[in-house]
Design brief:
This protein is about 75% helix and about 0% strand. By secondary structure, it is mostly helical. Among the domains are: about 210 residues, Growth Hormone, Chain: A (Up-down Bundle), CATH 1.20.1250.20; about 55 residues.
């Protein structure tokens, strides 16, 4: 496609390098809303007279509808026409964002966030599919670099941006900033983007045959993914399977997803083309994309908690710890985009996995004396490695995928990454809480009145308290409280370090899996 070519509508097609940053911005806007509201929850809860637990449904409602729409976006793009569907998503997302920013009650805010997730869910896969169709295979890597920066950098910068907006303006602007961006994108996409001829022909064929809506498939998908997301988001909060609600959600999710898979595989015209997973490259790429989401979003959620819980960082400071890593991703991806056509994509993935795992190993060695820049440097190393993963994985995923299936392929890839992120955050939160309890029990077992080191430490604390004017009658109780707090901090630290180490092991284990991938050569489909 070039600036001189003519599209099916008779209009001159636009240079794809102009299209790429526009669709990347649309994806960035939508992914940003996955994390930008996190740090503002206490402010929203206080302003709308709600509890912190109630306010978490602001996040859950968005994630549920987002997860449901993602796999459907390929089918919707084909039936409605990708450009029409894409512009509808942007318009709906902008309107829902306006309503979120103006919501006077928590209930209405949750409703509008549900609509926002529903309309925004199609932006990621549609953006990737547009790039896959707009660029020939040998130039696709650089296009995916722009898209990759948006979907990987957005979660990293979200907490920082959200904290800054909340501190300097109000939580309303977290949503309202989407409105002018959506308006600008709508006009740009209308002027710049056209559906490829084969997509136009397929849409016409579907309409000529009559659009048959698979209500059973829709229902099973919504049931399965919706309750899966509820289970993942609320599991730790409700003590997982000790809660009848979480148990019921898990059962409904499993039954819904299994029934959906069986139903779709038996249909001639499925709403989600699961047969794409028969291709080894595509199946392996989806697995790696799932684990990329697991580690990326899991570590992005874990690190701010770490510095806030143990070092008293503010939300803004916690976000700043992540920001240098986000810029490392931005620096790495254009480099990787150029290397994909020169270096075997498998070696780029291996380098990315090893480098990112190395950064996580550094995090697993943190102490209570660690400073800001030591934490930031470890995150930068991890993020630099992450920058070497998204583009090669996306590139190998499309090897062997028919051009007309790009919409469906993009939908499944983005679903894998988002589900990986949800699973990662849920499991890490559980391991963190339960690990802290376990490590605390182990540490308390070493505290004994018969231990000389313990007695010496207790005496040193008592002497320090007396020197600072503490009442003699309360010195022993105060010293014991200091030791108890020290044990709690050490147990928390050990739990965080254990989680970082587990994430590094996940990436190290993935390295041998890369050999299952067929070599991606420039020009291959």
């Amino acid at each position: 496609m070039s600036a001189a070519s003519t599209g099916p509508s008779g209009r001159r097609q636009v240079n794809p390098w102009i299209v790429a940053p526009v669709v990347a911005l649309a994806a960035f806007m939508e992914v940003l809303d996955l994390s930008i509201a996190n740090v503002a929850l206490p402010h929203i809860a206080g302003n709308l007279s709600a509890s912190r637990d109630q306010s978490t449904w602001i996040l859950t409602s968005y994630l549920i509808t987002n997860a449901i729409v993602l796999p459907l976006s390929g089918w919707l793009s084909t039936v409605l026409g990708r450009k029409r569907f894409y512009m509808g998503c942007i318009a709906g997302f902008g309107i829902a964002s306006l309503l979120c920013g103006m919501a006077p009650t928590l209930e209405l805010l949750i409703l509008f966030r549900t609509i926002q997730g529903l309309t925004g869910g199609g932006l990621q896969p549609a953006s990737q599919a547009i790039l896959a169709d707009a660029f020939p295979p040998e130039k696709r890597a650089m296009a995916f670099a722009m898209y990759g920066i948006s979907v990987v950098f957005a979660p990293a910068i979200g907490p920082t941006l959200g904290g800054w907006i909340t501190d300097n303006f109000s939580w309303h602007w977290i949503f309202l900033i989407n409105v002018p961006v959506s308006i600008g994108l709508w006009f740009l996409i209308d002027a710049l983007i056209q559906d490829p001829p084969d997509a136009v022909a397929e849409t016409k064929r579907r309409r000529a045959e009559g659009i048959r809506i698979d209500y059973i498939g829709f229902g099973l998908l919504a049931l399965g993914l919706g309750f899966l997301q509820v289970m993942l988001d609320k599991g730790q909060e409700d003590d997982w399977f000790a809660s009848s609600f979480i148990t019921a959600s898990a059962v409904i999710a499993v039954v819904g997803i299994v029934a959906f898979v069986i139903w779709e595989l038996r249909r001639d015209d499925p709403i989600v083309d699961l047969t794409l997973l028969k291709d080894r490259n595509f199946a392996v790429a989806n697995g790696m994309m799932f684990m990329l989401g697991f580690v990326l979003l899991g570590s992005t959620a874990l690190l701010p908690q770490f510095v806030q819980a143990l070092f008293g960082y503010s939300a803004m400071q916690a976000g700043l710890v992540l920001s240098p890593g986000g810029f490392m991703i931005m620096a790495a991806m254009p480099l990787v985009g150029r290397l994909v056509g020169i270096v075997d994509a498998r070696w780029l993935i291996v380098f990315g996995l090893a480098t990112s795992a190395g950064g996580l190993v550094l995090m697993s060695g943190f102490t209570l004396d660690v400073d800001f820049w030591t934490i930031a440097y470890a995150r930068m190393l991890q993020a630099f490695g992450l920058g070497f993963l998204f583009i090669p994985i996306s590139s190998i995923a499309y090897v062997g995928v028919p051009r007309g299936k790009n919409n469906a392929a993009a939908a499944l890839l983005n679903l894998s990454r988002n589900l990986g992120g949800s699973v990662g955050i849920a499991l890490l939160s559980t391991w963190l809480a339960r690990g802290a309890q376990s490590f605390r029990v182990d540490l308390v077992g070493h505290i004994s009145p018969f231990d000389a080191n313990y007695l010496q430490r207790l005496s040193e604390i008592e002497a320090g308290l007396i020197a600072n004017g503490a009442p003699a009658a309360q010195v022993r109780d105060l010293a014991l409280a200091v030791i108890a707090r020290s044990v709690e901090r050490q147990a928390e630290l050990m739990s965080y370090l254990h989680d970082f180490l587990l994430l590094s092991i996940v990436f190290f284990v993935l390295i041998p899996v890369v050999v299952l991938v067929k070599v991606s050569r420039p020009g291959a489909r």
